[in-house]
Specification:
The chain has about 650 residues and is α/β, with parallel strands linked by helices. Helix 10 (about 270-280) links the parallel strand 10 and strand 11.
Length: about 650
């Protein structure tokens, strides 16, 4: 086997050096990761893709078989999405992640039966891999149709190559009475829709212009032949060049010659060439197909409805026939060029995603184990006093005999509602919110045993998603073991939303940065320091508050006039909690190793010693948490039974 547990193995179909957006994305990301100190390599597989033949299937199986246990493998969607059987064979031994540019079934020109086949195969493959990266928020949203929950996805949008050394564009040719030069960069295929660009240009023969179509003509020979014939039949052979696939120097030259960039594609999972064109100061006319609507919503880009040749023609005419309009568009694009991402930015997003997944797997990948095992300790630790104060406040609310309405954020498998619902002696209506579909399903099953109304909502939990999220008639927001994982910006947005509704808030079991083991061990201080460093790492919403979370929440609530009460709620674990204690220590050691690879041997020795003590009944563990209750200064809203949450 290949000894490669620390290497990021990217797997693509065919030659990794192919010059398309997807292949460039993988190559440039791998290069940026290596520059950032994270070893990455790209391997191409022989065979036919995306509908794999026997050669492709055997190549994937052989490659995965050679990798060492625990290796991180990032599988390009074109390579893996249609072979779930092979993935399942290796899924328990390897860390398999998918990199999805766009779903295979979204490809243009597929028959209904082909779409159905790709959809079912890719849905199966995405269910098997542990985690999923996408290159756009649009694709991340698309994957909901494949049964993929938002919590399983991270997005790392592409950068542009050497944006600091952009091509220097010459003076506006329109001002020099030269024909504007139009550039389109994309391999010739029906989805890229170069035929529609040719059709649009055929109606502009009265204007002066020249166009270059740069991109491979070999991927779909029949389509390329049709485009070539279309150019001939339209009498545009002298005005439209088919440059074929070009190298970097030639592409840079084409950018220098161009006055505008056009992308007529019917569908893109991101649309890297828009970023690349803007980065060199070219204004862009682009369709709004797929993710292009989002990628192109920026200064210097003119969008038109995908497939609408008449609007494309009118857009081209506007810039070709009006030198001042084109000059203005070029100036706007040059101003936007400084806002493009670098590949270092993309690599940073990717590494943050890996960190998020690592944390997520320790806590939720096996929810039937970790979340279930910790529930008894959680309930044992919680503040009875704060629960009683909350109940007293809820009873004092103005009422028209409707239920108290409660929203639980980050529900998991429903531990918080299982504790709190029976403790509140009043009619209740709960909305349980989580990113993970499978956890919500388990919470729904558990809630049937409670004599309260429950509704489940799968919803992304990012800072920008909180505005207007809570119903106006809400009384209480709760969360458990959550806010130490989120950023200050995330918490600020949640508090702003809670305050806007003048709702109470009860957030429990936030880690405070302190834990102790008895008897002591010489490496305890090292472990605690490294774990707390890791707690501040990015868990998907920015640098996590970690041990500072409870105090940050209390401060924000107090600044908004809330009556804030904080109580210590520690775990006290003994041999009676052996499974939880072992899982907890394993998580600590994993986090500490990530912060200090040089300390691996010391940390492993610590873990072995602690497991022996635990088995012998000699170990006690205290983990400090805090519960925070915030009550608004004035409660002006009333409960409205006619508007359930």
């Amino acid at each position: 086997m290949l000894e490669s547990e620390t290497t990021l193995h990217f797997v693509v179909p065919g030659d990794p050096d192919q010059n398309t957006g997807g292949y460039r994305y993988v190559r440039k990301l791998a290069e940026a990761l290596n520059l950032a100190g994270a070893a990455a390599e790209v391997t191409g597989l022989p065979g036919s893709f995306p509908k794999p033949d026997a050669v492709a299937t055997q190549a994937m199986d052989s490659l995965l078989s050679r990798l060492a246990d625990g290796s991180r493998v990032i599988l390009d969607g074109l390579a893996m999405s249609a072979m779930p059987d092979v993935l399942e064979k290796h899924a328990q031994r390897l860390y398999l992640a998918a990199l999805i540019h766009h779903p295979l079934a979204d490809e243009t020109g597929l028959s209904q039966s082909e779409q159905s086949w790709f959809f079912q195969r890719e849905k199966g493959a995405l269910k098997i891999v542990r985690d999923i990266f996408t290159t756009s928020a649009f694709t991340a949203t698309r994957l909901a149709a494949y049964g993929v929950s938002a919590g399983r996805i991270r997005t790392a949008e592409p950068g542009v190559e050497s944006p600091g050394g952009r091509v220097t564009l010459g003076a506006d040719k329109a001002a020099e009475n030269q024909a504007p030069h139009i550039l389109c960069v994309a391999h010739l295929s029906p989805r890229k829709a170069q035929n529609q660009l040719v059709e649009a240009l055929s109606g502009l023969k009265d204007l002066q212009w020249h166009c270059t179509l740069a991109g491979s003509c070999e991927r779909d020979l029949a389509y390329a032949s049709r485009v070539r014939q279309q150019i001939q039949d339209s009498g545009l052979r002298s005005r439209i060049d088919l440059a074929g696939e070009v190298d970097g120097d030639k592409l840079a030259s084409l950018y220098r010659q161009a006055d505008m960039f056009v992308l007529p594609s019917l569908y893109e999972g991101y649309g890297m060439v828009i970023d690349e064109a803007v980065a060199v100061g070219l204004p862009v006319i682009s369709s709004d197909g797929g993710a292009l609507k989002a990628t192109g919503e920026r200064p210097g880009v003119m969008l038109y409805p995908a497939g609408d040749v008449n609007v494309l023609r009118a857009s081209l005419r506007k810039w070709i026939d009006d030198p001042d309009s084109l000059a203005h568009a070029r100036a706007v694009a040059r101003g936007e060029a400084c806002n493009t991402r670098t590949w270092a930015d993309t690599a940073s997003l990717f590494l943050q995603g890996l960190g998020y997944f690592d944390q997520n797997h320790r806590e939720t990948h096996f929810p039937g184990e970790w979340l279930q095992v910790r529930e008894t300790a959680d309930h044992r630790a919680r503040s009875v006093n704060l629960t009683q104060k909350l109940e007293h406040w809820l009873h004092a609310l103005p009422t028209n005999d409707g239920p108290v309405r409660i929203v639980d954020i980050g529900t998991g498998r429903g531990s918080n509602v299982a504790y709190l619902a029976p403790a509140l002696s009043m009619s209740q209506e709960w909305l349980l919110v989580d990113q993970d579909e499978s956890l919500l399903a388990e919470a729904a099953l558990r809630s049937k045993k409670l004599d309260v109304s429950m509704r489940m909502l799968q919803h992304r939990l990012m800072p920008g998603d909180f505005h207007g999220f809570l119903p106006h008639h809400i009384s209480l927001v709760t969360a458990s073991a959550l806010i130490d994982l989120v950023s200050e910006a995330w918490l600020a947005e949640l508090v702003k939303e809670v305050v806007s509704k003048q709702a109470a808030i009860l957030v429990v079991l936030s880690y405070t940065g302190r834990f102790a083991l008895t008897p002591a061990h010489e490496q305890d201080d090292l472990l605690i320091d490294l774990v707390n460093q890791h707690q501040h790492g990015n868990k998907g919403t920015g640098a996590a508050l970690g041990p500072d979370a409870a105090s940050a929440l209390a401060e924000k609530l107090a600044l908004n006039g809330y009556d804030v009460q904080v109580e210590e709620t520690p775990w006290h674990l003994t041999c009676k909690d052996a499974r939880l204690a072992e899982m907890l220590m394993a998580g600590w050691v994993t986090a500490a190793k990530q912060r200090s690879p040089d300390a691996v041997a010391l940390l492993d020795a610590w873990f072995v010693a602690r497991k022996h003590q635990l088995a012998a009944g000699e170990l006690e563990i205290t983990v400090c948490h805090q519960d925070v209750l915030g009550l608004p200064p004035v409660r002006t809203t009333t409960k409205i039974p006619e508007q359930p949450i």
